[in-house]
Structures are given as structure tokens and as C-alpha cells.
Amino acid sequence: MNAAPETRVVHAACPHDCPDTCAMLVTVENGRAVRVQGDPEHPTTNGALCTKVSRYPERTYHPERVLTPLKRIGPKGRGEFVPVSWDEALETIAARLKAIAARDPEAILPYSYAGTMGLVQGESMAARFFNKLGASRLDRTICASAGSEALLATYGIKAGMHVEHFAESRLILIWGSNSITSNLHFWTIAQAAKRQGAKLVCIDPRRTETAEKCHEHLALRPGSDGALALALMHELIAHDWLDHDYLERYVDGWPALRERALQWPAERAAAVCGLTVEQIRGLARDYGTTQPAAIRLNYGMQRVHGGGSAVRLIALLPCLTGAWRHRAGGLLLSASGWFAGRRDDAWLQRPDLLAGRQPRTINMSTIGDDLLREASPGFGPRIEALVVYNSNPVAVAPESRKVVAGFAREDLFTVVLEHFLTDTADHADFVLPATTQLEHWDAHTAYGHTYALLNKPAIEALGEARSNAAIFRALAERMGFDDPCFADDDETLARRAFLADRVDLGSLEQRGWAKLDVADAPFAKGFPTPSGKAVVDVPGLGVPDHVPNHECAETTPELAARFPLAMISPPARHFLNSTFVNVKSLRAVEGEPLLEIHPDDAAARGIADGAEVRVFNERGEYRCAAAVSTRARPGVVVGLGVWWRKLGRDGTNVNELTHQRLTDIGRAPSFYDCLVEVAAA
């Protein structure tokens, strides 16, 4: 008779780059994780996980997991490796880094982003290591920095509404967000508001799954969001749908903003946005006459040249109507600012280890160009070594032809910490096996809600995998870094990540999460700026205006004549950036890389649904299947991403076509500011 399995349930947190940051419960039987589910007691998770993360055990126990250190034996990019011991890997890596650092430590570059959002497995021991080394610093811009800096400039903080309070809103503008795909728990809350009579309006170039389920969809052109915001302001002014008292008390620079908005009647914006005058006026009427009205803004709309200015303008809309007086009114783009001062960043990252040095900063969004640069007085030393963790730049960075060329340099020493042999890992000299979220300690903030979370390891690390923090701890030892901080273990880092007087550590320990103390209507009586007011005329930036795309008929007419279609590249529903692409059950649902194209644009090019197409511009070419669909508006194609290049039809993905030019604010990439042409293959 078989004994009953030993079963336990462990509190965990979803590590992925998503505003929901779910609290999870991991069921373990006889040392094996058999189920991952949402914590029903956590108010925003409410027991539910997205399809991707509910299959997390499939990812953890994936037969292709890298579970031993690997050393390259073939050409870069071929993914040809042999297993080696940790001792051999660490000794070789440390020796190469020491030799490079002896010449110039700034020739070494870390490259990481949000493969995990954890404070421990993200930038704790890694930051200590690179600060002590004096390596080049990485400007982590690839996702959110345009919108983040716009919020900081306007509100003085990267923060906004509580997501739960959208349930009480009477009007919700879902702006630049496919919430069903990328913010599922907000969508549940919005549906609750809808059942109570709220109107939902989606503003998005694509007719997404979310747009289909809203009362109204405004399919504006990519990069025209700022023009729409200004036209809405024009209508609010013309009809006096304004809260004059709020403007007087809590907005610095209202006269200048009023003057700017009066230059944008609905007719002018309609021509820029590709909308009708009636659509703009109807939306303004709804927004100006409905209280409480809330905006769920997401980061897709800021991935264009004028993305920062557009966020500034949209962030000012609730100030005009006084929507911030209500806890169910205002705007949410990010809640991450509420965690500032509640986590112990100085202790986690130890910037004091720089010892007064000020290394250069490399923008992760221009890594394609930067890996190909020679040493120069303006740039500094050539990049000789790259340590990649929590990222897959060969797949996700813009203008990937240059990224691939840079990673293929034989004189570039590359170390990748990974779970799988991604496109980036295929170019590594060493691949080091990293643990997944089920196998390590971590602490998490969120950018979509106001709960801190603690992740406890549910299972022992598989094979020879080690946590990111443990790998950098071991590298520090081999480099001879003997500062006591390099002895801190992962559990210590996780338990000390939050300040005891600012976060309820008892709740974190017992429940796995703790609610932050944030006012219900945080900006009802002003903003955390020096003046206490939202700022219109920002020093160095001026009064915001619509900024046209880098690539469009207005700014580059000759280019637009050759490449007349605007391309956006949002994530496929069952992927999260390039994560989960190799989970076969999820990839089976997605099928293959697709380009959505409107029937009118397809007919003009002789393209049938399902046919192979060439998508191309001056930067490159990408082949995939055409999905002829009204999800794409006329003149816009949608390249769903981010597929691993080696899983594509021709070994490329949509980033073969994107460029490295940056946003107006925040030094961020302009992924959705891209002109292409499409032809039958």
C-alpha cells in the first residue's frame, strides 16, 4: 500500500514583468511542485492566474532546462556547448573579467532587465558585484522609462490610483493597453465596474481582445495619443467641463496648457489620429460629464518618438476635471513610486562600493550600435565583456541585425545566466544555469498595485542550478571581493529588502504579502512636487505638445512613400515578451509568428489570409504568415511578438525591422514607431 504523498503549500509571487504581480500558492508533493495557483486571499490576485503563469511547473520542469554550466565549443550563434563544472566556469570567467578590468573595468557591461522583477534575483548581489568592479552602468530603458520620467516630471512620483478603486468608476478609458492579455486582474475589476453601469472605452491602434469587449473603441494611429489628449482638453475648455478650483489649487502652469490645448480643435486632431471629429467630441463629452472617471494608461502608447510628451498630456487630463478628488477617479500608469522609501535600495545594491568612481552609462536600447562601436573619447573603451541576466537582448532589443552582429563578435566575452538556450544564450561563451521562481528566495514590489510580496522557495534547485544572487556571490569570491556584504545569503537579502517601519513584515511572513499604507485618493489635495501641484511647464522640457513619430508621412515623407505601413509589435497573448515562447503548450496556442494586416491593405498587395509574407524596410526583412483581419486598422500592421528568432521562419523576428532611435523623454526605444512594406513572399 502506497503512503500518502507529503503535501505542503508555499507562498510565492509571480516574478514576471506584469503590473499584476500575483500572489501565488505552490502545492508541493514529495518535493515536486505539482500546482501553481493564485492566492484567493490576496485582494488583486483573487485566486486567479493568467494562462502563462498557471503553467509555471511546465516551465520549471521543462526538458530543455539548462541544469549545468555550459561552455561554447562552436561558432557564436550556433548554440553548441559542452557541460563543465562550476569550478571551471567560475575560474575561467573570473580570470577573463580580471584581465579586462585590469585594463579598464568600464569595458565590462552588465545587461539585464525584468526577466524577474525580484529585488533579490534582479539587482541586489548583481549590483554589488558590478559596483565593486567599477563596470559600465546600464541605462535600463527598454520598457517604461519614457512614461516613468513623464510621470515624475508631472506628478513628482511614479504613482496613481489604487487599481481596486476602478471598480467604483463610472467611466474607464483603457488607453494603450490590451488588459485581457497584459493586465488580466485589472480587466476583472473593470468588468465589475461595467456590471455596475460603467462605460468602458478602449483607445488602441489595434482591435484587441480588450477593445472587442469595451463599449467603444477608438483605433487611432500609432504615435497620435498626444494629439488626442490635446483635442480632449480643447473640448473640455470649450464646454467648460473643468474643475476651476482644482486647477487653481493643484496645477502649476494651467494658462500655458490652456493656450496649447486651444491650438488643437477636434478637426486638427482627427486628421492626425485617423479618427472622426464625432469620436473625439463624444469621448470628450463622456470624460467631461462623468464622475468619477478613470484612465488605465499602459506603456504601449509611449513606445514612439513622442511617447513621453503624450504621457505628460494624458496625465494632466484628470487634473482638468478634478477627477483626482475621487478615489475612483484619476489615472494609473504605474504604482511603483509608492514603494520608494519602503525598500532598502542602498543596502541591497550598495552604491557605496563604487568608492567615488562614476563609470559611463550605456543605454540598453542602443546595444546594437554600442557593441559595434570602437573605443573613442566620447564613448570610452570598446565593450569587451557582457554579462547578461534576466534578459534576452538578441530577441528583444531593437534593430536586431546589429544586435546579432555585436553578439557574434569573436573578441566579445559573453556570459549568460539563463533557464534555457535562448537566442542570446546561443551566442554566449558560458551559460550558467539559473533557478526559477519556485527554487529561490525573493522579494517583490509591484507597478500595478500597492502590495509588497515575499517569495519563498517551494522546491530544491534542479540539477546544478543556482540563483542569480548565488552566482554573483560566487563570482565575487573568485574575483577576490572580500567585503562582508558579499556573504549575505538570499534569505537574508529577501527578508531585509523592505524597511521594517514602512512595510508589515509580519504579514509578509504569514501571508506572503502586505498592503502599503497609501491614501485612498492620493492626489485629492495636491502632488509630491516642490510646489505641491502638477507641473505643466517642466524645466528643460517646456509645455507638452504632440510630437510626431520618427517615421511617418509628416516627418519622413520620402520614407513613408516607400514604406507606407506603420508597424506595431505588441506581445502575443500567451507570451510575455520573449518568456514562455518555448513552453510548447503555449506556443501551440499561438501557432506561428503572424502579421495582422487589414483586408484593404492585403487586397492591394495580393495577400491572402495564411500566406507567407515578406515584411521589410531599410533595416531588414522578416518572413511570417499573414493574418488578414480587421484587428489591424487600415495603414497599420501588427507583428505579434516577441518570438525567439530561431523559432521564426527565417531565423528573425519583428525586431529585425525596428530602429534604435529614442523617445523624446526617458531615452527609451520607439518600437511602435516603425514604417514597413509588406509583399507576398
UniProtKB/TrEMBL annotation:
<dbReference type="InterPro" id="IPR006657">
    <property type="entry name" value="MoPterin_dinucl-bd_dom"/>
</dbReference>
<dbReference type="InterPro" id="IPR050612">
    <property type="entry name" value="Prok_Mopterin_Oxidored"/>
</dbReference>
<dbReference type="GO" id="GO:0051536">
    <property type="term" value="F:iron-sulfur cluster binding"/>
</dbReference>
<dbReference type="InterPro" id="IPR006655">
    <property type="entry name" value="Mopterin_OxRdtase_prok_CS"/>
</dbReference>
<dbReference type="GO" id="GO:0043546">
    <property type="term" value="F:molybdopterin cofactor binding"/>
</dbReference>
<dbReference type="GO" id="GO:0016491">
    <property type="term" value="F:oxidoreductase activity"/>
</dbReference>
<keyword id="KW-0479">Metal-binding</keyword>
<keyword id="KW-0411">Iron-sulfur</keyword>
<dbReference type="InterPro" id="IPR037920">
    <property type="entry name" value="YoaE_C"/>
</dbReference>
<dbReference type="Pfam" id="PF00384">
    <property type="entry name" value="Molybdopterin"/>
</dbReference>
<keyword id="KW-0500">Molybdenum</keyword>
<feature type="domain" description="4Fe-4S Mo/W bis-MGD-type">
    <location>
        <begin position="7"/>
        <end position="64"/>
    </location>
</feature>
<dbReference type="InterPro" id="IPR006656">
    <property type="entry name" value="Mopterin_OxRdtase"/>
</dbReference>
<keyword id="KW-0408">Iron</keyword>
<dbReference type="Pfam" id="PF01568">
    <property type="entry name" value="Molydop_binding"/>
</dbReference>
<keyword id="KW-0560">Oxidoreductase</keyword>
<protein>
    <submittedName>
        <fullName>Anaerobic selenocysteine-containing dehydrogenase</fullName>
    </submittedName>
</protein>
<comment type="similarity">
    <text>Belongs to the prokaryotic molybdopterin-containing oxidoreductase family.</text>
</comment>
<dbReference type="GO" id="GO:0046872">
    <property type="term" value="F:metal ion binding"/>
</dbReference>
<dbReference type="InterPro" id="IPR006963">
    <property type="entry name" value="Mopterin_OxRdtase_4Fe-4S_dom"/>
</dbReference>
<dbReference type="Pfam" id="PF04879">
    <property type="entry name" value="Molybdop_Fe4S4"/>
</dbReference>
<dbReference type="InterPro" id="IPR009010">
    <property type="entry name" value="Asp_de-COase-like_dom_sf"/>
</dbReference>
